[in-house]
């Protein structure tokens, strides 16, 4: 039995990097290019960014986010008011049919509160987004350097900047 398990575990460990940065989709909702920036060793919070597309013919609402990488995960929106950046928690985020929402620095993001450990470049971790009509959409988040995801489309870059 051990002869068969060792090769299985080896192949799974080799496949893990290929699963990194895994997009998710369910019932017309597509989540693409999930990523997070590295955090400092003393930082207790982080943020996840991605692109969410509603390819269905009806309104869907993002109602929650979960990950074991933090004590809490919340939908947040940053915006500038009177020259000052403010951040607020959203209970939910409606997405119209055919609409694409960019979760990017300075805008919508998933706030990770009470990180279980710092986010280090190259780390990958699962996040589950919950939608009212599409259910749970699991994705794999890739942690990048402080510059975030920049570069060409192959690196999922410029569309994350605002």
TrEMBL record:
Signal peptide: 1-20
This protein's UniProt keywords: Signal
InterPro entries per the UniProt record, alphabetical: LpqE-like (IPR007410), Lxx211020-like (IPR058248), PCuAC_sf (IPR036182)
Keyword Cytoplasm: no
SUPFAM superfamilies, per database record: DR1885-like metal-binding protein
Keyword Kinase in annotation: no
UniProt cross-references to PANTHER family, sorted A to Z: BLR7088 PROTEIN (PTHR36302), COPPER CHAPERONE PCU(A)C (PTHR36302:SF1)
Entry protein name: Copper chaperone PCu(A)C
């Amino acid at each position: 039995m051990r002869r068969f398990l060792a090769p299985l575990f080896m192949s799974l460990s080799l496949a893990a990097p290929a699963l990194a940065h895994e997009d998710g989709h369910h019932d017309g909702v597509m989540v693409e290019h999930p990523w997070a920036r590295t955090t400092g060793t003393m930082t207790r919070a982080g943020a996840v960014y991605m692109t969410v597309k509603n390819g269905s013919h009806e309104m869907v609402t993002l109602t929650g986010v979960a990950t074991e990488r933090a004590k809490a995960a919340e939908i947040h929106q940053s915006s500038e008011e009177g020259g000052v950046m403010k951040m607020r928690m959203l209970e939910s985020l409606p997405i119209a049919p055919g609409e694409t929402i960019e979760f990017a620095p300075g805008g919508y993001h998933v706030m990770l509160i009470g990180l279980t450990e710092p986010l280090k470049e190259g780390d990958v971790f699962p996040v589950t987004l919950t939608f009212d009509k599409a259910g749970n959409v699991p994705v794999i988040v890739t942690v990048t350097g402080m510059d975030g995801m920049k570069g060409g489309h192959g690196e999922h870059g410029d569309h994350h900047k605002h």
